[in-house]
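Re: that backbone. Tokens:
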């Protein structure tokens, strides 16, 4: 199970889409902001990466084997707690687990002394960039283009929708991470 902070784009992200759309009125700022958030969530799904750095908590089975954390790229692993069958979470001493962040940004954790823990809860931070302006330009521009597509192709419920522009996936494809299981 994984829990994380919601992806929240700053106002300058919506301003970028508004500029791309050449919208000068302020009455649709909320709509454009919502479309930008939807486009950013689709970008995260497509690329397999968290865009903006934020916290995640993941619960894994207690194991001596290395286990990969779900969200990437991991910037820091901040806590490891044991979750025994009974009672509340217990912080593990540093000698009872090992952590690693590899060159591709995957976070790894394993227990060296699981004790009576059935599961382990790992707190970590993941994200491509700390701020919107620090994201690669191709990701930012793809998100703005997709939000613009959503804005200009609003259709009534049940009507045929156009496919998103191929240029969006072309911008995002170099950042796509896929895993073989």
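Recovered sequence:
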């Amino acid at each position: 199970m994984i829990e994380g902070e919601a992806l929240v784009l700053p106002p300058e992200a919506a301003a970028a889409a508004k500029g791309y759309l050449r919208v000068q009125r302020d009455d649709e700022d909320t709509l454009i902001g919502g479309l930008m958030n939807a486009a950013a969530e689709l970008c995260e799904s497509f690329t397999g990466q968290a865009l903006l750095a934020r916290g995640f908590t993941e619960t894994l089975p207690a194991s001596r084997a290395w286990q990969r954390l779900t969200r990437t790229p991991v910037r820091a692993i901040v806590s490891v707690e044991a979750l025994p069958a009974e009672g509340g979470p217990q912080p593990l001493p540093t000698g009872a687990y090992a952590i690693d962040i590899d060159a591709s940004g995957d976070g790894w954790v394993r227990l060296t002394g699981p004790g009576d823990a059935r599961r382990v809860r790992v707190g970590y931070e993941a994200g491509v960039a700390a701020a919107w302006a620090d994201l690669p330009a191709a990701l930012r521009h793809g998100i703005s283009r997709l939000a613009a597509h959503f804005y200009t192709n609003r259709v009534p419920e049940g009507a045929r929708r156009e496919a998103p522009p191929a240029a969006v996936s072309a911008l995002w494809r170099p950042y796509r991470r896929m895993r073989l299981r």
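The two ends are 18 Å apart (CA to CA). The chain has a mean pLDDT of 90.
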